[in-house]
Design a protein that fits this description.
3 domains, 122 residues, 4 strands, four-stranded antiparallel β-sheet, 3 helices
Amino acid sequence: MEFINILKIIFFLIILVVLMYGTLYMMKKYFYSSDKSRSKLVKIKVLSTQMIMPKKFIQVVQVHDKVLILGISDHSINLLQEFEGFIPEDRIYEEESQTAMDLKGSFKENFLEALKKNLGLK
């Protein structure tokens, strides 16, 4: 083979690779775009995922105001439980922090009472 023929082959291979990447880029951009406006119509949010065995998961999913607990394997998805009237996460954290503060204060009081009782001061 002559040197010029080798350069032609390399040139056409480079053009072919560039065309393939260009096609892939265009397909990703226009056909498989993650359109945020469409995703706002159906409000689906994955709250938690827990693996229980290899390729088997339990997943908690929020769909609008419903919470679904799903059992997911490599062959199927099963609805385990469904809850209505979901409380948003920020309100849950507020309630948990308030409860924790209440428990912390009562724990200190109970601990001091138990300590006094065991020391014979009470």
